[in-house]
Amino acid sequence: MPPTLTPLSTIQNVRLPGKDATWDITISESSGIITSITPHQNPNSDKHAPLALPALTHPHIHLDKAFIHNSPEYTQLLPATGSFAEALSFTTEAKQLFTRNDLLRRGEWLLAGSVAAGVTAMRAFVEVDHTVNLTCLEAGIALKEEWKEACAVQLVSFAQDPIFSTEHGEENRRLMEDAVRRPQVDVIGTTPYVEMTMEAAKRNITWAIERALECNKHVDFHLDYNLDAGKEALVWFVLSALTEKGWTVHSTDKRVMLGHCTRLTLFRDEEWELLAREIRDNNLPVSFVGLPTSDMYMAAPSSKSHDRPRGTLQVLEMINKHGLDAVIGINNVGNAFTPWGSEDPLSLACLGVGIYQAGTTKTAELLYECVSTRARAAIGLSPLEASRTLSQGDRADILLFHDVDDTGCNISRPRHGVAGIVWDPPAKISRDVVVAGRLKTSGSLCPRTAYR
């Protein structure tokens, strides 16, 4: 059940990153927009003031496959080898058992945990194919409507299975043709690498781009999910197809997301420079999403190999060195593709400190952006040039971090600034979430903070 949200007009006595003393945030109750941020009048009141930051975003998460491992119906499908082939096979078996009630229950687990963590927007994938038909999509539509006040669910009609090869390709494509035209669907998603041939993979890409332009939808590809230097990187075909079809920032406000792309970790500097130039020179609204918990678990050679590299997009380098738009996302929780990790994006930002050797305060702040404001912009819910901090005129989606005792020992430990939050994410109980100016409380409010 979605949480109760209480409308606010002001949030008083909060800390803001990079600013001294404490501040009051005024919110329009009619629009949910921040109308002003002004200094708090009591200069000595900042000892227990919470840190206020932009709310979190899931730029790429699978709604229908979440928490399969937490459901008793699927105990026979726990990983035995942990391979990618097994994950595909076990997930196909699991999908044969999906029911509407099961999908709604597991979807609510994901939404409730995400909102409690501070997520107010997500791009959620639901599969459409001959196994599940439109069951996952219909459950996703119901969840999107039920949870719309607490979280903006951007729904992806997703073809995990081939649509141009195998005996089921034509049926899968026919179902997708129906699904993508539904008004509740915001994004067309496909997986070109599951096709049986490179020709079929390219037809898959072309079909998705053409339908997205026709239906005025975003497009999102699971792409180049391998670490094989001998395989053609399909990213080049995607860019050329977008250019050929006239998909530019001037022709549409819809965006293109490329997920996983582990094959690109084998690129040399000159290939990265060419990729960035292709996107820039052709005004392509392309973003990349690294999915480290899945990528590092799945994108690996056979266990029989003594050389077992791991691959995930070097997101911070893509941003800082090559000027690309890139973010990070959870992808899966509690299933054979990703049996480890939680739905909390801050846990992913924290992991990124180690993955990217990003130990400075500046890089920690960038990692927070990659699961908050940058992620929201990448999926088209705010402009790319939107403020990376809370500002007047922003939608009041705010995450507040309190210093609370989560040990049961009557001891609370502060975290200082954005970096402190990323390096050691505080428990959900210490977080209060404001969605468009309406408060979802954790139940452990700091008495020095006034919500009105």
TrEMBL record:
UniProt entry tagged with the keyword Hydrolase: yes
Which Gene3D superfamilies does UniProt cross-reference here?
Answer: Metal-dependent hydrolases
SUPFAM superfamilies assigned to the protein according to its UniProt record, in alphabetical order: Metallo-dependent hydrolases
Its Gene Ontology molecular function terms?
Answer: hydrolase activity, acting on carbon-nitrogen (but not peptide) bonds, in cyclic amidines
The record's listing under PANTHER family reads: CYTOSINE DEAMINASE
Its recorded name reads Metallo-dependent hydrolase
Pfam family example for this protein? Amidohydro_1
In what residue span(s) does the Amidohydrolase-related domain sit?
115-382
Q: Does the keyword Ribonucleoprotein apply?
A: no
